[in-house]
Structure formats: C-alpha cells, structure tokens
C-alpha cells in the first residue's frame, strides 16, 4: 500500500527500488493497455480508421480499406482525423478516470496516466513527423 505522502515522493537513487515501485509498474501497464486499445480500435474498424502507410516523402497517409480490410488506392485525410479523435477520447477518458474514480492505493490513477501519455504521444507524433 502506498500512503498519500508517497504519491509524489522523489526516488532515492536505488534503481532496483525504482523498478520495483508499484507506481512505475502501474504506469507501464497503463501505457501498454492504452497502446493496445488504439491498435485494436484501428484494426477492428478499418472502415472508420483506414490503413496507415508512408508515402515517398515519409509522411503518413491514410487509405480507405476494402471489405477485407486491405488498403485501396484512395487516400482519405478524414481517416487521420478519426484516429486523432480516438486519441483525444482516450486522453479525456483517462484524465477523467484520474480525477473522478476513487482509488485508495492510487495505482489506478497511475495506470490511467500511462494510457493518457501514450495517446498524447501518438497525438503529437501526428503533427511532428521527426518524432516518429
């Protein structure tokens, strides 16, 4: 159990203690779950999110998918917007979870922080190709 005084405590330099910290583990698990939610949403609903690919200049473009889920030759910028809206939804949901869902141990909040951070990173990467 973590008491409230520990939630924002500074690491003491012990790397093994840091790696065994449940706050770090909860944040990492939340990040993995956030990334898995994004990937699952994209692959399960290709009609809404399309198929992402890089063009010759290195920019990401989104192609419409056929009924089998394979990319067609039609580029649709709206599909990228749909992906960005999903990422925003994950961020808002995770921040709402941090703020409004009670958890005595505080680990749920750290898990939601991990999910929000992955969605925020992917959101920013869309605008700055050098970060990909």
Q: What series of H and E elements makes up the topology?
A: HHHEEEHH
Biggest pleated-sheet summary: 3 strands, antiparallel
Helix content: 55-70%
Roughly how many Å apart are the termini?
37 Å
Let me know the average pLDDT: 87
So what's the oligomer here?
single chain
How much of the sequence is in beta strands?
5-15%
User: How many strand segments?
Assistant: 3
Q: What's the arrangement of strands in the largest beta sheet? A: 1-2-3
Low-confidence runs: none
Radius of gyration: 18 Å
Structural class: mainly alpha
3D shape: elongated
State the domain count.
1
Discrete helix count: 5
What would your notes on this structure say?
- It is a single chain.
- This protein is mainly α.
- It has one domain (23-127).
- Helices cover 58% and strands 11% of the residues.
- The protein is built from 5 helices and 3 strands; from the N terminus they run H-H-H-E-E-E-H-H.
- Strand 1 (51-54) and strand 2 (60-65) form a beta hairpin.
- Helix 2 (22-44) crosses helix 5 (107-127) and helix 4 packs antiparallel against helix 5.
- The model has no long low-confidence stretch (mean pLDDT 87).
Brief write-up:
By secondary structure, this protein is mainly alpha-helical. 58% of the residues lie in helices and 11% in strands.
Which characteristics define this entry?
single chain, 132 residues, mainly alpha, 5 helices, three-stranded antiparallel beta sheet
Give the topology.
Layout: H1 15-19, H2 22-44, H3 46-49, E1 51-54, E2 60-65, E3 71-75, H4 77-100, H5 107-127
Antiparallel strand pairs: 1-2, 2-3
Helix pairs in contact: 2-5, 4-5
């Amino acid at each position: 159990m973590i008491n409230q005084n520990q939630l924002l405590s500074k690491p003491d330099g012990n790397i093994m203690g840091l790696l065994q910290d449940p706050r770090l583990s909860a944040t990492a698990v939340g990040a993995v779950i956030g990334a898995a939610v994004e990937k699952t949403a994209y692959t399960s609903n290709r009609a809404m999110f399309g198929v992402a690919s890089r063009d010759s200049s290195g920019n990401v473009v989104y192609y419409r998918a056929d009924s089998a889920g394979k990319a067609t030759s039609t580029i649709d910028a709206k599909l990228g917007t749909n992906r960005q809206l999903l990422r925003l939804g994950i961020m808002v949901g995770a921040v709402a979870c941090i703020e409004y869902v009670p958890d005595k141990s505080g680990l749920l909040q750290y898990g939601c922080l991990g999910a929000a951070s992955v969605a925020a990173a992917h959101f920013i990467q869309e605008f700055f190709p050098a970060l990909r």
